[in-house]
Amino acid sequence: MTPSPPARGFNWSNLGVRVLSGVILAPGVIYCAFLGGWVLMGVIVLAVALIAREWASMCAPAAPARIAAAVTVAVLAAATTGQLGHYRIAWIVLVLAAGGCALLSRAVAARPSDAAFGALYIGAPTLALIWLRASGPAGQMWTFLVLASAWSADIVAFLAGNLLKGPKLWPQFSPNKTWSGFFGGLVAATLAAAIVARVWAMLRPDELSTGKALLVGAFAGLATMAGDLWESMLKRRFGVKDTGGLIPGHGGLLDRVDGLMFALLAVAAARLLVNLGWPR
Questions:
Q1: Angle at 47 between CA 41 and CA 51, to 5 degrees
Q2: Helix 136-164 vs helix 112-133: angle between axes, to the nearest 10 degrees?
Q3: Where would I find the beta strands (DSSP E) of the chain?
Protein backbone atom coordinates (compact mmCIF):
# COMPACT_ATOMS: atom_id res chain seq x y z
CA MET A 1 0.00 0.00 0.00
CA THR A 2 1.40 3.39 -0.95
CA PRO A 3 1.78 6.09 1.72
CA SER A 4 -0.86 8.79 1.99
CA PRO A 5 -0.05 12.10 0.31
CA PRO A 6 0.10 15.25 2.45
CA ALA A 7 -3.10 17.18 3.02
CA ARG A 8 -3.89 19.90 0.51
CA GLY A 9 -5.03 23.42 1.27
CA PHE A 10 -8.46 24.70 0.35
CA ASN A 11 -8.63 25.35 -3.40
CA TRP A 12 -11.31 27.88 -4.20
CA SER A 13 -10.81 27.57 -7.96
CA ASN A 14 -11.33 23.82 -7.67
CA LEU A 15 -14.54 24.48 -5.73
CA GLY A 16 -15.86 26.55 -8.63
CA VAL A 17 -15.12 23.76 -11.09
CA ARG A 18 -16.77 21.22 -8.80
CA VAL A 19 -19.91 23.36 -8.51
CA LEU A 20 -20.09 23.91 -12.27
CA SER A 21 -19.72 20.17 -12.94
CA GLY A 22 -22.50 19.42 -10.46
CA VAL A 23 -24.82 22.05 -11.92
CA ILE A 24 -24.38 20.56 -15.39
CA LEU A 25 -24.75 16.90 -14.42
CA ALA A 26 -27.31 16.91 -11.60
CA PRO A 27 -30.44 18.04 -13.54
CA GLY A 28 -30.02 15.24 -16.09
CA VAL A 29 -29.60 12.64 -13.36
CA ILE A 30 -32.66 13.94 -11.51
CA TYR A 31 -34.78 13.94 -14.67
CA CYS A 32 -33.80 10.38 -15.56
CA ALA A 33 -34.46 9.26 -11.98
CA PHE A 34 -37.89 10.90 -12.20
CA LEU A 35 -38.73 9.01 -15.40
CA GLY A 36 -37.24 5.72 -14.18
CA GLY A 37 -37.72 2.54 -16.21
CA TRP A 38 -35.58 1.99 -19.26
CA VAL A 39 -34.64 5.67 -19.43
CA LEU A 40 -32.86 5.34 -16.10
CA MET A 41 -31.52 1.99 -17.25
CA GLY A 42 -29.83 3.76 -20.16
CA VAL A 43 -28.01 6.02 -17.73
CA ILE A 44 -27.05 2.99 -15.66
CA VAL A 45 -25.56 1.25 -18.71
CA LEU A 46 -23.39 4.27 -19.50
CA ALA A 47 -22.33 4.76 -15.87
CA VAL A 48 -21.47 1.09 -15.38
CA ALA A 49 -19.32 1.03 -18.52
CA LEU A 50 -17.43 4.17 -17.45
CA ILE A 51 -16.90 3.04 -13.86
CA ALA A 52 -15.83 -0.44 -14.99
CA ARG A 53 -13.22 1.18 -17.22
CA GLU A 54 -11.90 3.25 -14.31
CA TRP A 55 -11.83 0.20 -12.06
CA ALA A 56 -9.95 -1.84 -14.64
CA SER A 57 -7.45 0.97 -15.15
CA MET A 58 -6.65 0.83 -11.44
CA CYS A 59 -6.49 -2.90 -10.88
CA ALA A 60 -4.95 -3.93 -14.24
CA PRO A 61 -3.35 -0.85 -15.83
CA ALA A 62 -1.32 -2.94 -18.28
CA ALA A 63 -4.43 -4.42 -19.94
CA PRO A 64 -7.62 -2.75 -18.71
CA ALA A 65 -9.88 -3.40 -21.70
CA ARG A 66 -10.50 -7.09 -21.00
CA ILE A 67 -11.36 -6.58 -17.35
CA ALA A 68 -13.49 -3.53 -18.10
CA ALA A 69 -15.50 -5.52 -20.64
CA ALA A 70 -15.90 -8.49 -18.29
CA VAL A 71 -17.03 -6.33 -15.35
CA THR A 72 -19.42 -4.35 -17.54
CA VAL A 73 -21.05 -7.48 -18.93
CA ALA A 74 -21.30 -9.04 -15.47
CA VAL A 75 -22.97 -6.00 -13.91
CA LEU A 76 -25.32 -5.35 -16.83
CA ALA A 77 -26.41 -8.98 -16.95
CA ALA A 78 -27.49 -8.71 -13.32
CA ALA A 79 -28.94 -5.22 -13.82
CA THR A 80 -31.06 -6.31 -16.79
CA THR A 81 -32.37 -9.25 -14.78
CA GLY A 82 -33.31 -6.86 -11.99
CA GLN A 83 -34.88 -4.37 -14.38
CA LEU A 84 -37.13 -7.18 -15.62
CA GLY A 85 -38.32 -7.66 -12.03
CA HIS A 86 -36.35 -10.75 -11.04
CA TYR A 87 -34.41 -9.22 -8.15
CA ARG A 88 -33.47 -12.38 -6.27
CA ILE A 89 -32.25 -14.02 -9.45
CA ALA A 90 -30.32 -10.85 -10.27
CA TRP A 91 -28.18 -11.23 -7.14
CA ILE A 92 -27.39 -14.82 -8.07
CA VAL A 93 -26.46 -13.70 -11.59
CA LEU A 94 -24.18 -11.01 -10.14
CA VAL A 95 -22.30 -13.42 -7.88
CA LEU A 96 -21.85 -16.01 -10.63
CA ALA A 97 -20.79 -13.37 -13.14
CA ALA A 98 -18.27 -11.95 -10.66
CA GLY A 99 -16.71 -15.39 -10.45
CA GLY A 100 -16.56 -15.44 -14.22
CA CYS A 101 -14.72 -12.10 -14.17
CA ALA A 102 -12.04 -13.62 -11.95
CA LEU A 103 -11.56 -16.51 -14.35
CA LEU A 104 -11.37 -14.28 -17.43
CA SER A 105 -8.85 -11.93 -15.83
CA ARG A 106 -6.35 -14.56 -14.69
CA ALA A 107 -4.01 -13.91 -17.61
CA VAL A 108 -3.96 -10.09 -17.41
CA ALA A 109 -4.42 -9.12 -13.75
CA ALA A 110 -1.99 -9.59 -10.90
CA ARG A 111 -4.94 -10.33 -8.60
CA PRO A 112 -7.90 -11.86 -10.49
CA SER A 113 -10.00 -11.37 -7.35
CA ASP A 114 -9.88 -7.61 -8.04
CA ALA A 115 -12.00 -8.14 -11.15
CA ALA A 116 -14.55 -10.16 -9.18
CA PHE A 117 -14.62 -7.55 -6.43
CA GLY A 118 -15.08 -4.81 -9.02
CA ALA A 119 -18.18 -6.55 -10.39
CA LEU A 120 -19.66 -6.84 -6.89
CA TYR A 121 -18.58 -3.33 -5.88
CA ILE A 122 -20.28 -1.79 -8.92
CA GLY A 123 -23.11 -4.29 -9.28
CA ALA A 124 -24.53 -4.29 -5.76
CA PRO A 125 -25.45 -0.56 -5.66
CA THR A 126 -26.67 -0.82 -9.25
CA LEU A 127 -29.20 -3.47 -8.23
CA ALA A 128 -30.11 -1.42 -5.16
CA LEU A 129 -30.88 1.60 -7.37
CA ILE A 130 -33.01 -0.44 -9.76
CA TRP A 131 -34.97 -1.95 -6.86
CA LEU A 132 -35.45 1.40 -5.09
CA ARG A 133 -36.81 3.10 -8.21
CA ALA A 134 -38.97 0.23 -9.44
CA SER A 135 -42.20 0.70 -7.50
CA GLY A 136 -43.89 3.73 -9.07
CA PRO A 137 -44.27 7.00 -7.13
CA ALA A 138 -42.88 5.45 -3.95
CA GLY A 139 -39.78 4.54 -5.91
CA GLN A 140 -39.43 8.15 -6.99
CA MET A 141 -39.46 9.32 -3.39
CA TRP A 142 -36.87 6.79 -2.23
CA THR A 143 -34.61 7.56 -5.19
CA PHE A 144 -34.78 11.30 -4.62
CA LEU A 145 -34.16 10.73 -0.91
CA VAL A 146 -30.94 8.82 -1.49
CA LEU A 147 -29.72 11.32 -4.09
CA ALA A 148 -30.48 14.28 -1.81
CA SER A 149 -28.86 12.65 1.21
CA ALA A 150 -25.69 11.53 -0.56
CA TRP A 151 -25.19 14.78 -2.46
CA SER A 152 -25.86 16.90 0.64
CA ALA A 153 -23.41 14.84 2.68
CA ASP A 154 -20.73 15.20 0.00
CA ILE A 155 -21.17 18.95 -0.47
CA VAL A 156 -21.44 19.96 3.17
CA ALA A 157 -18.66 17.61 4.28
CA PHE A 158 -16.37 19.17 1.68
CA LEU A 159 -17.25 22.73 2.69
CA ALA A 160 -17.27 22.17 6.46
CA GLY A 161 -14.06 20.18 6.39
CA ASN A 162 -12.17 22.76 4.38
CA LEU A 163 -13.55 25.85 6.13
CA LEU A 164 -13.71 24.63 9.75
CA LYS A 165 -10.80 22.18 9.52
CA GLY A 166 -9.91 20.61 12.89
CA PRO A 167 -8.80 17.06 13.72
CA LYS A 168 -8.38 14.61 10.88
CA LEU A 169 -10.91 11.81 10.50
CA TRP A 170 -8.57 9.08 9.20
CA PRO A 171 -5.29 10.62 8.01
CA GLN A 172 -3.74 7.25 7.17
CA PHE A 173 -6.04 6.88 4.17
CA SER A 174 -7.55 10.30 3.53
CA PRO A 175 -5.49 13.22 4.92
CA ASN A 176 -7.98 15.89 3.82
CA LYS A 177 -11.06 14.57 5.63
CA THR A 178 -11.85 16.00 9.05
CA TRP A 179 -14.26 15.34 11.88
CA SER A 180 -15.91 18.71 11.19
CA GLY A 181 -16.62 17.57 7.65
CA PHE A 182 -17.91 14.23 8.92
CA PHE A 183 -20.45 15.76 11.31
CA GLY A 184 -21.40 18.49 8.83
CA GLY A 185 -22.11 15.89 6.16
CA LEU A 186 -24.05 13.71 8.59
CA VAL A 187 -26.32 16.59 9.63
CA ALA A 188 -26.83 17.65 6.02
CA ALA A 189 -27.80 14.14 4.88
CA THR A 190 -30.23 13.76 7.77
CA LEU A 191 -31.96 17.08 7.07
CA ALA A 192 -32.05 16.45 3.32
CA ALA A 193 -33.88 13.15 3.81
CA ALA A 194 -36.39 14.80 6.14
CA ILE A 195 -37.04 17.59 3.63
CA VAL A 196 -37.65 15.11 0.82
CA ALA A 197 -40.04 13.14 3.03
CA ARG A 198 -41.95 16.26 4.10
CA VAL A 199 -42.32 17.50 0.52
CA TRP A 200 -43.46 14.05 -0.59
CA ALA A 201 -45.94 13.87 2.30
CA MET A 202 -47.90 16.66 0.63
CA LEU A 203 -48.67 14.19 -2.18
CA ARG A 204 -48.60 10.81 -0.37
CA PRO A 205 -48.96 11.30 3.39
CA ASP A 206 -48.45 7.66 4.38
CA GLU A 207 -45.21 7.00 2.50
CA LEU A 208 -42.52 7.88 5.09
CA SER A 209 -42.85 9.79 8.36
CA THR A 210 -40.45 12.58 9.22
CA GLY A 211 -39.06 10.60 12.13
CA LYS A 212 -38.25 7.60 9.96
CA ALA A 213 -36.84 9.88 7.28
CA LEU A 214 -34.42 11.38 9.81
CA LEU A 215 -33.18 7.90 10.70
CA VAL A 216 -32.86 6.91 7.05
CA GLY A 217 -31.03 10.15 6.26
CA ALA A 218 -28.55 9.63 9.10
CA PHE A 219 -27.96 6.07 7.90
CA ALA A 220 -27.46 7.31 4.34
CA GLY A 221 -25.06 10.02 5.51
CA LEU A 222 -22.94 7.54 7.43
CA ALA A 223 -22.90 5.23 4.43
CA THR A 224 -21.94 8.07 2.07
CA MET A 225 -18.88 8.99 4.10
CA ALA A 226 -18.00 5.33 4.60
CA GLY A 227 -18.09 4.87 0.83
CA ASP A 228 -15.83 7.88 0.36
CA LEU A 229 -13.31 6.52 2.87
CA TRP A 230 -13.50 3.05 1.34
CA GLU A 231 -12.62 4.41 -2.09
CA SER A 232 -9.75 6.39 -0.55
CA MET A 233 -8.38 3.12 0.84
CA LEU A 234 -8.75 1.47 -2.56
CA LYS A 235 -6.89 4.30 -4.28
CA ARG A 236 -4.07 4.05 -1.74
CA ARG A 237 -3.90 0.33 -2.41
CA PHE A 238 -3.63 0.83 -6.17
CA GLY A 239 -1.38 3.88 -5.86
CA VAL A 240 -3.56 6.39 -7.71
CA LYS A 241 -4.74 9.88 -6.79
CA ASP A 242 -8.00 9.81 -8.77
CA THR A 243 -9.87 7.03 -10.52
CA GLY A 244 -9.88 9.06 -13.73
CA GLY A 245 -10.28 12.53 -15.21
CA LEU A 246 -13.79 12.41 -16.65
CA ILE A 247 -15.41 15.06 -14.41
CA PRO A 248 -13.54 18.37 -13.95
CA GLY A 249 -12.91 19.14 -10.29
CA HIS A 250 -13.85 15.63 -9.18
CA GLY A 251 -11.65 13.19 -11.07
CA GLY A 252 -13.29 10.04 -12.38
CA LEU A 253 -16.94 9.06 -12.24
CA LEU A 254 -16.11 6.63 -9.45
CA ASP A 255 -14.65 9.55 -7.46
CA ARG A 256 -18.02 11.26 -7.82
CA VAL A 257 -20.32 8.36 -6.93
CA ASP A 258 -18.28 6.42 -4.35
CA GLY A 259 -20.38 7.69 -1.45
CA LEU A 260 -23.63 7.36 -3.39
CA MET A 261 -22.87 3.69 -4.07
CA PHE A 262 -22.75 2.92 -0.34
CA ALA A 263 -25.75 5.17 0.32
CA LEU A 264 -27.82 3.22 -2.20
CA LEU A 265 -27.15 -0.01 -0.33
CA ALA A 266 -27.93 1.63 3.02
CA VAL A 267 -31.21 3.20 1.85
CA ALA A 268 -32.27 -0.01 0.10
CA ALA A 269 -31.75 -1.85 3.40
CA ALA A 270 -33.68 0.88 5.23
CA ARG A 271 -36.56 0.67 2.78
CA LEU A 272 -36.69 -3.09 3.21
CA LEU A 273 -36.96 -2.60 6.98
CA VAL A 274 -39.68 0.03 6.53
CA ASN A 275 -41.58 -2.33 4.24
CA LEU A 276 -41.36 -4.96 6.95
CA GLY A 277 -42.82 -2.51 9.47
CA TRP A 278 -39.67 -1.51 11.39
CA PRO A 279 -39.12 0.81 13.16
CA ARG A 280 -42.67 1.25 14.39
A1: 145
A2: 120
A3: 168-170, 174-178
CB 55 within 8 A of CB 122: yes
Residues 83-121: b if buried by 16+ CB within 10 A, e if exposed:
beeebeebbebbbebbebbbebbeebbeebebbbbbbbb
In whole angstroms, what is the distance from residue 68 CA to residue 101 CA?
Answer: 10
Q: Is 68 within 8 Å of 53 (Cβ atoms)?
A: yes
**Residue 273 is inside which H or E element, if any?**
helix 253-275
User: Whole-prediction pTM value?
Assistant: 0.91
Cβ–Cβ < 8 Å for 210, 194 = yes
Could you please report the per-residue DSSP string of 20-76? Answer: HHHHHHHHHHHHHHHH-HHHHHHHHHHHHHHHHHHHHHHH-TTSHHHHHHHHHHHHH
Check whether the bond before 279 is cis (ω within 30° of 0): yes
3-class secondary-structure state, position 79: helix
- Per-residue b/e over 19-45, b at no fewer than 16 CB within 10 Å? eebbeeeeeebeebbeebeeebbebbb
User: pLDDT for 18-42, tens place per residue?
Assistant: 667 777 888 999 999 999 999 999 9
Amino acid at 261: M
- 80's CB contacts (< 8 A; 6+ apart) are 41
Q: Tell me the pLDDT tens digit for each residue of 169-219.
A: 877 777 778 899 999 999 999 999 999 999 988 887 667 888 999 999 999
Q: Is 74 buried (19+), middle (13-18) or exposed (0-12) by CB count in 10 A?
A: buried
